[in-house]
Specification:
433 residues; eight-stranded parallel beta sheet; globular; binds zinc ion
């Protein structure tokens, strides 16, 4: 899907004017709240018709009604490149706040087995699943992993995504996890968008540690986390809490190490089975992800905090599940929700966040406006980037996606096709070829 030439860092940020925008979705915060959107706020996309956006130095200088932006004094001074958007729809660059970017190959055996009726756990038990990707990453060079990651980031940019959270997690040894994080860093250095690296050493228990899990947890807590923090290779630490992976008590051990080394935390929770989330709340996670089986009694606690619950319906779709994450229950209770792809080779091989928005509308009962807010401003909050990303307003990073549609509701409406016409990544313009 990378139909245009890939962009590189050196092309960054000469002055740019996006003019003749039919609908600009600013996602500006209504009122003074600086936290994630919740409840009815999710429906307010801050729509301005006949709009323009002026950027320079990777930041937004002005955004609003075109006649006002055109009068901005910086326009005369900077003489920006002017792009006529032809009445199309512009929104904040999409924020994909949950991806497993580092893997080598698709898992086609899993795919066929599952179609034939095997469950997620049966596939894992037969040597497929996450462990099948571990062998590939273990053998690959850092250069190969970085090259693949960069190609995937370019593919995402072509579909409107400008910020990507990228996890390691198919290494499962200090050496391979750190190699994966280095590959993420190398790819990020060559991509004009923003990459947020996450260490997911606690993804599954490696085969050789099955009988001595404490030993692997020490590997994560005493080797991977200190090294990733010291070398600034990760901003977050993630844990996969699930039957067959890690318990909440084990996640607490991992989070204690993350906290000690000043890294943020996030977790995969309640994807396949219900788990109590309250023991993890004291670590103030930026985001708790999946949450299909969240317990009723945990919902009010989540609603009281600025923790984002990131819903990943791409996995439900690809696993052929009948049930989807309980978006309506969460939104109505006041929980801040985000949407992300969960891009990974086993359960959600899609880089297309607009498709996830479509799923959110058709299977989670979210309105187009709620889905867009969840994948922009709330995605930014899920990465603790709410003051820099996720809305189009002066002072924020110049991250914009322009879709070749006349009405923003068409973004989730046309599913399975890429309607992204242009992407601006920290001021760098990527036009569809
Ligand atoms: Zn995941």
């Amino acid at each position: 899907m990378a139909e245009a030439m890939p962009l590189r860092k050196k092309e960054l940020s000469s002055p740019l004017l996006l003019a003749n925008i039919g609908q600009l979705l600013t996602l500006r915060t209504p009122g003074k709240s600086s936290g994630p959107r919740r409840g009815p706020e999710l429906n307010d996309v801050g729509l301005i018709k006949d709009a323009a956006v002026l950027c320079s130095g990777g930041k937004i200088l002005a955004a609003g009604e075109q006649r006002e932006v055109l009068r901005h004094p910086a326009r005369k001074k900077l003489k920006p490149r002017e792009v006529d958007c032809g009445g199309r729809v512009a929104l904040p660059g999409l924020v994909d706040s949950h991806t497993h970017l580092i893997f080598t190959a698709p898992r086609l055996v899993d795919f066929e087995h599952r179609i034939a009726g095997a469950t997620y756990e049966e596939i894992a038990g037969a040597g497929g699943g996450i462990r099948a990707s571990v062998e590939g990453v273990g053998k690959a060079s850092k250069k190969t992993l970085a090259g693949q990651a960069l190609a995937r980031l370019d593919e995402m940019a072509a579909q409107g995504t400008t910020t990507v959270e990228a996890k390691s997690g198919y290494g499962l040894s200090a050496e391979a996890e750190l190699k994966s994080l280095e590959a993420i860093g190398d790819a990020a250095d060559r991509w004009p968008g923003t990459v947020v690296p996450t260490l997911l050493g606690a993804h599954v228990m490696p085969e050789e540690f099955q009988s001595k899990p404490e030993k692997y947890l020490r590997e994560v807590a005493q080797k991977m986390i200190p090294a990733a923090a010291k070398r600034k290779l990760a901003r977050f630490v993630d844990v996969f809490c699930e039957r067959g992976a890690f318990t909440v008590a084990q996640a607490e051990q991992v989070f204690e190490a993350a906290q000690k080394h000043a890294l943020g935390v996030r977790a995969h929770l309640c994807q396949l089975t219900a788990t109590e989330v309250w023991p993890l709340l004291r670590f103030n996670p930026a985001s708790l992800d999946h949450m299909d089986h969240v317990m009723e009694e945990d919902i009010p606690q989540l609603a009281r905090r600025d923790i984002v619950v990131t819903l990943l319906p791409g996995a439900n779709y690809f696993l052929g599940l009948e049930e989807y994450p309980p978006a309506r229950r969460l939104i109505e209770a006041g929980v801040a929700v985000a949407l992300a792809t969960d891009y990974n080779p086993g359960t959600s091989p899609t880089s297309n966040l607009a498709f996830i928005l479509s799923l959110a509308c058709t299977h989670l009962g979210m309105s187009p406006a709620e889905a867009i807010a969840a994948a922009t401003i709330n995605g930014a909050h899920a990465l603790r980037l709410g003051s820099e990303k996720g809305s189009i307003e002066a002072g924020k990073d110049a991250d914009v996606a322009v879709f070749d549609v006349a009405d923003y509701r068409e973004v989730p409406y046309w599913f399975g096709v890429n309607r992204c016409w242009a992407t601006v990544l920290r001021g760098a313009l990527r036009l569809k070829a």
